[in-house]
Amino acid sequence: MEHELVIVLDFGGQYNQLIARRVRECGVYCEVKPYTTPLAELKAANPIGIIFTGGPNSVYDPASPHYTSEIFQLGVPILGICYGCQLIAHSLGGLVTPAVDDSAREYGKTETFYDTSCRLFQGLPETGISWMSHGDYMAKVPEGFQLVAHSAACPNVAIADEARGFYGVQFHPEVNHTENGLKMLHNFLYEVCHAKGDWTMGDYCKTAIASIRQKVGDGKVLLALSGGVDSSVAAALLAEAVGDQLTCVFVDHGLMRKDEGDEVEKAFEKWNIHLIRMNEEERFLTALAGVSDPEQKRKIIGEQFIRVFEVVGKQIGAVDYLVQGTIYPDVIESGTGDAAVIKSHHNVGGLPDYVDFKEIIEPLRMLFKDEVRQLGRELGLPEYLVMRQPFPGPGLGIRIIGDVTKEKADLLREADAIFREEVAKGGWDRNINQYFAVLTNMRSVGVMGDGRTYDYTLALRGVTTTDFMTADWARIPYEILDAASTRIVNEVKGINRVVYDITSKPPATIEWE
Asked: Which letter, b or e, does each residue of 205-226 get, where b requires 16 or more Cβ atoms within 10 Å of its Cβ?
């Protein structure tokens, strides 16, 4: 089944994946493409709408990213956000200049006034708060465009050519700070692009199963099962699609959380799945010995996973396909095209050049985390698996800052288990989307029982998020943090100081490495 498609054309802004997620929230399928994507490829995709993203550049700079003006002849509605708005103006004969004074520059929450006769703003209050981030100014709007929103400092906060379906906004409707921003995107999709809204997890589930069956045929499939949400949903999807052609391999690399391996085996024992557990602690720790750089650690772990799967593949004979639970944020953070590499995920940027499989299948590659959970429910997975705490494939290897040893892994395992116990005991385990402990490579002086200690500092991390592309630090009650800290320094020998990370994403990432 072909879904309606909206293309987000990426000009380097920080919220580009969030735009795509918001569009999908509205029931319309959406993909992000780099601004270098050829026009012929966009045309062949037959989108019902195109969204130009924000970006850090100025459109009047010849070195800034641009796109051929022929895109405006496709007959497809276009919405420009921030830089995208200025690009529309610049491309169609308007004039964009640096703001003449500080009053014309706008950043953060800004009171904005909307023309609600415009289709983009219909049904909205005439006044609201929008999230601005621009230092340039549209001194002249293109012919055929009307001013449809303004603020105290800026007369042209939004522009529209309703006849051609072209719209531009200087603010970010995709962020929660913009009041009614989702409604604006909904209006663009349904009132301007005339979307039907055919993107549902039920439909995706059916089409994914059919696609996997067609691709695999009678081939054998190996699935890398970590026990986390993504790989569990991928396992359920493949089990539905190819049944006993599937073998799931759980690799215990010695970097799991406390009792994780046993819990994974127990969680899947009732399933009709052939599950193999590989205990490979020595292999992984040997490969990681003396390595401190996080990118190198991820690549080493990624390669060792593949080598283990290749061994299993030969044991069970003629495996054609390897399945991984890669999701959209993994792909984005690992860097694609001109995009920056934030961190190479072991199952994306961490893969070795040579892989001894016919093909790697990633059925969740275009889904955000909340969509993966929805798909799990569609497949009938139990809620405790669907809502399981995220755990990165490299495991504690990227929660140990610096070189990785068995001693450090054992120490972190115990401390992390205590933190998770105290969060659950305090009733906050469902209020925090991800929480864990990080063993830093910093040591400091402490005192215990009249004696001097010189031990590790442990960092606790908790975040709230809906999509894992952005996140805020969790306001865990002091009582829970106090209980966790007291138990950790008393029960885990080698840690004498506990700190709590209060940084959002961005500027930080959720994991420390």
From this structure: beebbeebeebbeeebbbbbbb
Catalytic-role residue among 90, 172, 186, 345: 172
Handedness of CA 301, 306, 307, 309 (dihedral sign): positive
* Residue tagged 């063993």 (tokens): 439
How much of the chain, in percent, has pLDDT values that exceed 70?
Answer: 91
Active-site residue, selected from the candidate residues 82, 118, 193, 248: 82
174 in catalytic set? yes
Strands 78-81 and 166-169, by their bridges, are: parallel
Q: What is the C-alpha separation between 394 and 281, in angstroms, rounded?
A: 12
82 catalytically annotated: yes
**Given 4, 25, 106, 174, which residue is catalytic?**
174
Q: Work out the widest C-alpha separation in the chain, in whole angstroms.
A: 79
In contact, 511 and 399? CB cutoff 8 Å: yes
Q: Taken in order 67, 71, 72, 77, is the CA torsion positive or negative? A: negative
Confidence tier at 448 by pLDDT (50, 70, 90): confident
3-state SS class at 91: helix
Q: How many residues are present in the chain?
A: 513
Tokens of 452: 């001097």
Residue type, 102: D
CB 394 within 8 A of CB 346: yes
Alpha helices in 103-194 (DSSP H): 181-187
Whole-structure pTM value = 0.67
Q: List CB contacts of 187: < 8 A, sequence separation 6 or more.
A: 119, 120, 121, 122, 123
- Concerning whether 186 is annotated as a catalytic residue, the answer is no
- Sign of the CA dihedral running 270, 202, 429, 327: positive
What pLDDT is attached to residue 135? 62
Please report which confidence band the pLDDT of residue 334 belongs to, taking 50, 70 and 90 as the band edges: low
